[in-house]
Amino acid sequence: MSIKNNKLVMVLLAIFISPLAAYFQVGITLHFWVTLALYFLALGWIYALWLVLTDQSA
User: Fold this and answer.
1) pLDDT in the model for residue 2
2) Which residues of 17-43 are buried (b: 16+ CB within 10 A; e: fewer)?
3) Is the pLDDT of residue 15 over 90?
4) Which of 5, 19, 29, 56 has the fewest CB atoms nearer than 10 Å to its CB?
5) For 20-53, how does the pLDDT look when each residue is reduced to its tens digit (9 = 90+)?
6) What transmembrane ranges does the database entry give (predicted)?
7) Domain range summary for the chain, segments of one domain joined by +
8) Dihedral, CA atoms, 2, 36, 12, 26, nearest 10 degrees?
């Protein structure tokens, strides 16, 4: 079972380690870099959570 398929784990990652959740969800794309930049502003969890809950993919 892939970590990407486990929604609960992905939501928890999005809240606590947002760049990692973005990486698992979409890979190294613009979404990842936006999440990383927002992570340093303490807002990355919002964007990562949106990525996970809307099932965005690369």
Assistant:
1) 67
2) bbbbbbbbbbeeeebbebbbebbeeee
3) yes
4) 5
5) 999 999 999 999 999 999 999 999 999 999 999 9
6) 32-53
7) 3-53
8) -30
Measured in degrees and rounded to the nearest 5, phi and psi for residue 56 equal -65, 150
**What region does 42 belong to: left with phi over 0, alpha with psi -120 to 50, or beta?**
left
Longest pairwise C-alpha distance within the chain:
33
CB atoms within 10 A of CB 47: 20
Query: Which of 36, 2, 41 shows the shortest CA–CA distance to 18?
Result: 36
